[in-house]
Amino acid sequence: MKAQILPMERSASVKVPRPSRGRSSQKSAAGGHSRRQQIFDHAIVLMKEKGFVGTSVQDLADGLEFSKANFYYHIKSKEEMLYRISFETLNMKFEKLKTILNTTDPHPVRMRAVIDCFVHLLVDHTAVISVYFEEKRHLSPAHFKQVAKVERQILDALKDFYREGTELGYFKPLDPAVTMLGILGMCFWLSKWYRPKGRLTADVISAQLQALVNEGCLQPSAR
After folding, report:
1. DSSP state of 218
2. Is residue 49 part of a domain?
3. Are residues 47 and 146 in the same domain?
4. Cβ count near 190 (within 10 Å)
């Protein structure tokens, strides 16, 4: 599964005529989005292999067989591209998380669903998640602030969930921040060691991590 990236703004140095309305303009817009997605997909592969600093715009252009000018037509800068990858990765996680937490399932069921969600997210988007964690330090201060804000929203939602589950008697009275950061770290570490052709499937990994959390976090009566 490929991560869907938000459309990029065109570079201010490139003057593009206003498209006429109708089928041709719709095709043009679709083609532009497709080309941008190709750039992002290729960039993720290169940055996972060579890092953000080691990946040049020329590398990206050569890999897709177009000019640097064509690259800058679709994307303002390499840093902007990293920001879009990072921001959309976080939003993808946050939207999936909110869907789970907003259900009326008992807290233990939702906790297991959260773990399963993040395991499969890591498995399906290993390269994207790896690039995000390894390269986000290269974001500009303004862009880093934006992704940090979404990170806090994700953690706050999980802390509130754990705190509520504790008050209802489902979870052990552990510190919500430490507990949820530990669970997230356990899931995200998959980006370091998971191999698609390895001996363990995503479902098996998810089940084993759920078992660990059941023993560590759930009250005996909630298991």
Report:
1. B
2. yes
3. no
4. 21
Distances (CA, A) of 38 to 32, 60, 79, 191: 10, 10, 17, 22
Which residue from 125, 114, 124, 133 is spatially nearest to 179, judged by alpha carbons? 114
Are residues 139 and 100 both part of a single domain?
A: yes
In a domain, 169, yes or no: yes
| Inter-residue contact 77 to 136 (CB < 8 Å) | no
Q: Which amino acid is at 53?
A: V
Residues 69 and 101 in one domain: no
Q: Which of 188, 186, 159, 203 is nearest to 90 (CA)?
A: 188
pLDDT of residue 33: 59
Two structure tokens written together for 19: 């498209």
- Convert the pLDDT of each residue in 58-115 to its tens digit: 888 888 777 778 778 778 888 988 998 888 888 888 999 999 999 999 999 999 999 9
Q: Cα separation of 39 and 29, whole Å?
A: 15
Residue with tokens 């430490």: 178
Residue with tokens 């938000």: 6
Average pLDDT, the chain: 82
* 5, 45, 124, 143, 151 from 82: Cα distances, Å: 11, 12, 19, 10, 16
Tell me if the pTM is above 0.85. no
Q: What is the pLDDT of residues 2-41, one digit of tens each?
A: 333 333 333 333 333 333 444 444 444 444 557 778 888 8
How far apart (Å, rounded) are the C-alpha atoms in residues 24 and 44? 30
Please report the pLDDT score of residue 166 as a whole number. Answer: 97
HSE, side-chain direction, 13 A CA sphere, residue 197: 0
